[in-house]
Amino acid sequence: MRAILFLLLIAGVLAGCQKAARWDSADPVHCVAIFGIASVGAAAQSNNAVVTEMNDRILGLVQANGGAAWLQEITPETHRFAAEIEAADDDAAVLRLFDECAARHPPHG
């Protein structure tokens, strides 16, 4: 019985890792989502400087990828991806994605 529980635990961890492995800082949709989550979190803490920075990063991605039409097109995918991030409950993977996106996509300006 312990062996089965151990295998189930390992399978769950691997499934979570595989999901997080699909998170890609080269995908602008993933970065828009992670910057959006960071912006909302900063706004909840009244940290206007971080809100402005995250929104500037999003603006840079939007301008680099087709403007308002692109943003409108990706909005449903961004919402799905943000929900996946929140459901994964993997702080280390979220921080890694944020750091990689921040390195790739500096604030617009």
Report the radius of gyration as a whole number of Å. Answer: 16 Å
What is the element string, with H for helices and E for strands?
Answer: HHHHH
What characteristic shape results from the CA principal axes?
globular
Main beta sheet strand tally, sense and closure: none
Which structural class is indicated by helix and strand composition? mainly alpha
Count of helical stretches: 5
Number of domains: 1
Give average pLDDT, whole number.
Answer: 83
Percentage beta strand: under 5%
| E-strand count | 0
- Low-pLDDT windows of residues: 1-18
What fraction, in percent, of the residue positions are helical? over 70%
Distance between the termini: 58 Å
Task: Please characterize this protein's 3D structure.
With 109 residues, this protein is mainly α. The protein has one domain (2-104). The protein is built from 5 helices and no strands. The protein has helices at residues 2-21, 28-44, 48-64, 67-88, 91-104. It is globular and about 30 Å long. The relative contact order is 0.17.
What is the structure about, briefly put?
This protein has helices at 2-21, 28-44, 48-64, 67-88, 91-104. The chain is an all-alpha fold and 109 residues long.
Notable characteristics:
single chain, 109 residues, mainly alpha, disordered N terminus
SSE layout and pairing:
Blueprint: H1 2-21, H2 28-44, H3 48-64, H4 67-88, H5 91-104
